[in-house]
Amino acid sequence: MEIKIKIEPTFSVKWPMLKIKINDHVVYENPCEPNYGKFFVFKNQIDNVRKHNTLEIEHYDKKGKETLLDDNDEIISDRAIILRSVVLDEFEIPDVVLHDKPFEIKWTSEQLKEDNNRPSSIKNNLYFGYNGIYKFEFGNNSTKEYYLSLLEKERIANIHNKKEMVGPDGTKIEVFEFSGNLVDSNKQGDYTIGDLFKRIKNEN
Fold this sequence. Notes:
Elements lengths: L1 E9 L6 E6 L2 E7 L8 E6 L7 E8 L7 E2 L5 E3 L2 E9 L2 E2 L2 H5 L3 E3 L3 H6 L6 E2 L4 E2 L3 E7 L3 H18 L2 E5 L5 E7 L2 E4 L8 H10 L2
Antiparallel strand pairs: 1-4, 1-8, 2-3, 2-5, 5-13, 6-7, 8-9, 8-12, 10-11, 10-13, 14-15, 15-16
Helix pairs in contact: 3-4
């Protein structure tokens, strides 16, 4: 299986430092400089692909003084990396799925002195301006992983799309919209989007 990662690095003082690990093996550890237009594109052939694999993208070595501001405290430049895409073989993972994965922040001691109640991780963010590690897990079949990611995309979209209907007996029924139809999330014989996601994910 081939994995291709596209990152947009931003320059401030110097290029950001990037470490990429696949299944705990470091496959890249160097400055993240553009090599394809304004992007940094990295490809790796995974020869011993496992049933469960982990991609780790780490932004590190930021000291805390690389974010430059103008007189109005507006950011002029920042040292960061922006994850633009992850492709398994020829299948690109949907953006909404990438956004749903956590970025574990490694706060500096200075940052913790300023505020020791900072969160340990953030989601819905592919702009890695802090030091930290982003993790993405995937299986050993890129085709299945692609369709699973489409189902996960649908599941994420429907988390905030749940509705209530009143049944014939007056009871309230929680439903969600799936492929244009309202589906009862509790009725036996129907699958919720979560059920479908788990069922496909657990198939061999």
